[in-house]
Amino acid sequence: MSDEQHDTIDALSSENRTFAPSDDFKATSLVVDTSLYDEANTNDEAFWARQATELVDWEQEFDTVLDWQLPDAKWFEGGTLNVSYNCLDRHVAAGRGDKVAFHWEGEPGDKRTITYQALLDEVSQFANVLKGLGVKKGDRVNIYLPMIPEAAVAMLACARIGAPHSVVFGGFSSQSLSDRINDAEAKVLITADGGYRRGEVFPLKPAADEACESTPSIEHVVVVRRGGNDVTMVDGRDVWYHELMEGASTDCPAEPMEAEHLLFLLYTSGTTGKPKGIMHTTGGYLTHVTYTHKYVFDLQPETDVFWCTADVGWITGHSYIVYGPLSNGCTQVMYEGVPNYPANDRFWEIVEEYGVTIFYTAPTAIRTFMKWGADEPAKHDLSSLRLIGTVGEPINPEAWMWYHEHIGGGRCPIVDTWWQTETGGIMISPLPGATTTKPGSATFPLPGVSTELVDDDANVVPVGGGYLTLTRPWPGMLRGIWGDPERYQETYWSRFPDRYFAGDGAKLDDDGYLWLLGRVDDVMNVSGHRISTTEVESALVSHPSVAEAAVVGANDPTTGQAVFAYVILRGGADTDEATLRAHVAEEIGAIARPKRVFITPDLPKTRSGKIMRRLLRDVAEGRNIGDTTTLADASIVDELQAKAAESTAD
After folding, report:
1. What is the number of structural domains in the chain?
2. Closest CA to 149 of 264, 347, 312
């Protein structure tokens, strides 16, 4: 980077619309002033100690708040606790066993209502099952399941007996699964015959079988019956979940764990191709997710119905479907399938049916809803919603406004949250009763979180674009990369001295608001100007005809890199390439004008909805396309290649 003409990322766009919390919202909100910020700024360790004491039940109180030997943190040492106990037993003991933990809905329309007592019983039974299979404290357990209640049961059962779990998203290939099993040396694999997606059963067990051919550490495979598809059961290794559960006792006391006991591994992609096993421990992680879930979502546990649309295979599902919400004793919706089966209004039907009050989803999904049109949510009564949120990537201002108007009814605060697998929980977000928001800005670090933008030479950037760094440890932070402490140091702590940096760019506006610009490796260098793909995408989505855009920088002999854009139009809308190129130039300047804009019905996305920009770059540069096995629809790439070939021929 040192030879580039600009030290930091050019901040090109601006947004001046503001939305203050309404008096009605503030009347019942948990936080309406700066008191939490003031407390944390005075002494962040004392602040976190108070959260840990007030929000979490400890078997034995901790005696040390933080032991910080950069880059290694230990939080709440001396304390012991159990995460499963905090998520289940304490609510039942308090007389709330009849409270609904999950309203679960399968894609075909089948439903289950699971109370805290029922969930505790099933978790206890499965914890006993795992012990019966020889799983002991410290043994790793791999989980490869669809979005069914058994996924949460398996995670909580592991936590109950101190067996770190490693959840692998059900859309990953057998090779991805075997890589993760082998790295963790998992003893047991929990999977299902299949699950429902777009009206059909997608098989999981065959991929699990294929993975197990090269995973010598696996002793048993537990199979949940969900899809009803035919599977092969291997004698001596494979066992049915329902058969094991039939004779299992519901008596399984939660075992106290040290605060720094490994709770789970979660693998995230690495630049070298080898996935990184991110380590999260017990006391700090639980404190962080319980605190952030309570305050970011302004949780009213007696009345709220919370729905996070993520998959449990991702960190969002760990933190804001399983651990944070259940620790806070709230009622949730869990849905198995896609948002457009059997029709494009499935999500809004679910919101209406269960009276969802807090809705948390990804900008990718919101832009898809925009493409489908405002008529879909308009079919349903969404008046139960009182707070809506976004997660996963920066949200374009126009998508924010659409979400505000058509889902939030113009009345719901939006919490635009920034965090990562590595941070464990939310780091930057509005507090909805206290923060005036700007469309597209994650606003400010949460109380207890310390951020700074820096340039290439680690100088602090007070206004404008730079690299987002964290300057103080926080309880939910990763404790390393499994089996690779050198890589942990190199990946997160070597770029800037004494700072955590995980690769995201951001900008600070004149009011001190933070705007996330996406991954630094998604920054394009056009004639020496470092331009964020996020800003160009936002400019494209601000055109009334555009629902979604993906932008990449591709090699160009004149400018170093040129901007290539791929856009999906809103339903019924029409425009052309020249109009969109001119629109970007008008919005953020001629330097960001795309060299090409391809209008396409869809984009190459993983099954979790993440746009595969690497493939778009390959298309733009005319390279052979790499592995497409994780894509929801690989045929999209062929179509884009054909469009690119046509334009070259022209």
Report:
1. 1
2. 312
